[in-house]
Design brief:
191 residues, Arc Repressor Mutant, subunit A, four-stranded antiparallel β-sheet, three-stranded antiparallel β-sheet, 21% strand, transcription regulation, WH-like_DNA-bd_sf
């Protein structure tokens, strides 16, 4: 059984039983306790599960309004939201490309799709195929550093001529926003 399959089985057991001891998991999966610890490490980092004195259990679910950004917890009133769809078909709503890129970086191994809106056309596009304009002199009163998305390189560059900034591709934009956040794990959104 692959690690991802073991994690899926583990989550199923936790949903059914609430909590499990590491030794019990080891026995059920027929793997060493060290393997169990390696398997659960990403789930703990993503706050899907928590360690308890007797083993592990599912992390308590924080109730977040459907109109709230899952990353910065701001009210979703932006006209350029991002959606992340995970392999298990959960949909996460994010207020802007800034939060979308940071959240994607945190959970990319679980992401099936990431979609956003073209800034000018307001059409849905694949975030991985989009062009990102950062540091433009154009304030949308959203998360900083601000990021705008475009389906067309030509339109991104035309917007850049008028408002400045730098045009980046998906992976470059993730790297750049991470640098700009100076290693902080949260965003600098005004809530």
């Amino acid at each position: 059984m692959l690690p991802i399959e073991r994690r899926q089985q583990l989550l199923k057991w936790l949903n059914d039983e609430g909590s499990l001891a590491i030794s019990e998991i080891s026995s059920r999966l027929q793997v060493s306790e060290m393997t169990v610890y390696r398997d659960i490490k990403p789930l703990i980092q993503e706050e899907v599960i928590i360690k308890t004195s007797g083993g592990i259990s599912l992390a308590p679910i924080t109730k977040v309004s459907p109109n709230t950004c899952i990353y910065c917890l701001k009210e979703m009133n932006s006209r350029h939201p991002v959606q992340i769809i995970t392999h298990d078909l959960k949909v996460e709503q994010l207020c802007c490309p800034h939060c979308g890129l940071l959240r994607y970086k945190d959970i990319k191994q679980h992401v099936s799709q990431i979609i956003c809106r073209d800034f000018l056309q307001n059409s849905t596009i694949s975030a991985k195929m989009a062009y990102y304009l950062m540091d433009a002199d154009f304030n949308l009163n959203c998360c900083q550093p601000q990021v705008l998305t475009f389906e067309s390189l030509k339109q991104a560059e035309q917007f850049q001529k008028g408002f400045g900034g730098v045009v980046l591709r998906f992976e470059e934009a993730i790297e750049e926003i991470q640098k700009k956040m100076n290693g902080f794990t949260g965003c600098s959104c005004e809530k």
